[in-house]
Amino acid sequence: AHRHMQELKNFVQGAPSFWDLDSVFRVLHTLKGGASSFSAKAVADHTHRLEDQITKLRDDPHDFQRDVWD
User: Fold this and answer.
1) CB 30 within 8 A of CB 50
2) Mapped to the 3 state alphabet, what secondary structure does the chain carry?
3) Is there a contact between 30 and 52 (Cβ–Cβ < 8 Å)?
4) Cα torsion angle, 26, 30, 49, 6, sign
5) What is the rounded distance in angstroms from the CA atom of residue 34 to the CA atom of residue 19?
6) Helix-helix angle 18-37:41-59, to 10 degrees
7) pTM of the prediction?
8) For 7, which of 23, 36, 55, 62 could close a Cys bridge (C-beta 3.0–4.6 Å)?
9) Looking at residues 17-37, what average pLDDT do you find?
């Protein structure tokens, strides 16, 4: 858990590495699956959009859309 918190902190501070992004993606993916299991559609939909943004960032780190994260 501590490692994930540090990776999230790096991400929020604007200096994420590929590994930080990958870790955040995995956390979001797990959250999305859990939300879907409990029929929390709004949470699952939002985490899916965040996963899409992480994928874009891994492919092109300059493609950051701040409004998605705010």
Assistant:
1) no
2) CHHHHHHHHHHHCCCCCHHHHHHHHHHHHHHHHHHHHCCCHHHHHHHHHHHHHHHHHHHCCCCCCHHHHC
3) no
4) negative
5) 23
6) 160
7) 0.64
8) 23
9) 84
What is the identity of the amino acid at 23?
A: S
Both tokens of residue 19? Answer: 């590994």
Residues 6+ away with beta carbon under 8 Å from 56: 63
For the record, the structure tokens of 31 come out as: 């959250």
Residue with tokens 């899409």: 52
Quick: pLDDT tens for 34-55.
Answer: 988 999 999 899 889 888 888 8
Q: Determine the length of the chain.
A: 70
